[in-house]
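Students often ask why we bother encoding 3D structure as a string. The short answer is that it lets us treat folding as translation between two languages. Here is a chain of 414 residues written in the first language.
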Amino acid sequence: MRLLLTIAGLAFSALRENKLRSFLTVLGVIIGTGTIIGIGSILAGLDGSIAGVVRSFGANTAIVFKMRLGPTAGGRTPEELNRKPLTYEDGLAIAERCPSVDHVSPYLLNLSLRGPSQDHARYKSNDAYQLSLSGTDEYYIASGQAEMKSGRFFSPTENEHKLPVVVIGEDVYGSLFGLEDPIGKKIMVDGKELEVVGLMKRPASSVPGQSDNRVIMPYFTMAKLFPQAKENLLFVTPKEGLLPAAIDELTAVLRQRRHVAYTAPDNFAVSTADQIIEQFRQLTAATGIVMVVLSSIGLLVGGIGVMNIMLVSVTERTREIGVRKALGARRRDIVRQFLTEAVVLTSTGGALGMLLGYIISLVSRLAFPSLPTLVPVWAVVLGIGVSVGIGLFFGIWPASKAAGLDPVEALRYE
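And here it is in the second language, the structure alphabet:
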């Protein structure tokens, strides 16, 4: 151990004597390691953020829509796009005919499946665009899917009587009212006058960069004022521990109501929070692999640089190697010395890379406050392991070359 510490001390002395050359040598290692840790922290934070958003719908909730949901639902087929929407009556049928279901909450969307939202709100001369316009029942707030910042959520009576009331998200409030109290004010949404009764807090688990453009009204108000809105999501809450049974039951009910042939596949999709999260994790895992492969290019360049500089070091220190061999140094002692120097060089680069990765993580958190970036343990271990491994791998040839020098020839070297 004392010998290794002595060799490591000599290696650090060599680094200090050639600071710029050493830095340029391990620059690829720094960039590669920093990228692994930085991207790892962003993916870990994004994973936690997405999981929070999805679970806000209810960890024990089934989400029923006419098409697949989740990050892998892209590239929907024309058949999916042209499916008939789910209806409010479908939700009633599920609630009445499925013994394992505790509650069904409809969520009516004014949704454009082929482009961004065109919905628009105005208050005095202020405008808000690309609204997330929807209608639901009072269970939306009771189930914890929204939290009020001021005012209140609408009541069952307001829903039943189709009253023109609305609750809004924080970004809609900022665009329309600035610092003015919105409660009791009338706003125009796509030409319809609605009274603001509540302001919702921005979801704590919102996706980074996502705007809180929610404009939510009672379900029957939405159906009355926006008859073109036909797309229904159904949030199905099962009885405790009966989620699989509830999914089986609602699937049977919907297949019957939507006249699906016995041998035909479902013309609707049932998703759970865990399924959507798992899909997202599959996507981020693939992204992570791609980033590691790209980072490996920088690490490879850094490794080649280390090998090159170690070969130069062997040439520069030929006489020193000859003297050590003449004084009795064994082949393995020379190999150990140069391998240790290579490992110290790349480990220093790895440490600087970890610092770079932490800075990337910190900057990402400042740029996106809702992204709880976290440097995962696996990224740190991988960064350290890779940097040490590069030193060992690319230091073998220079170390072997140094150990193979003939002491007589080495002492003659000028």
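Translate back mentally: Residues 160 and 297 are 62 Å apart (CA to CA). Keep this in mind for the problem set.
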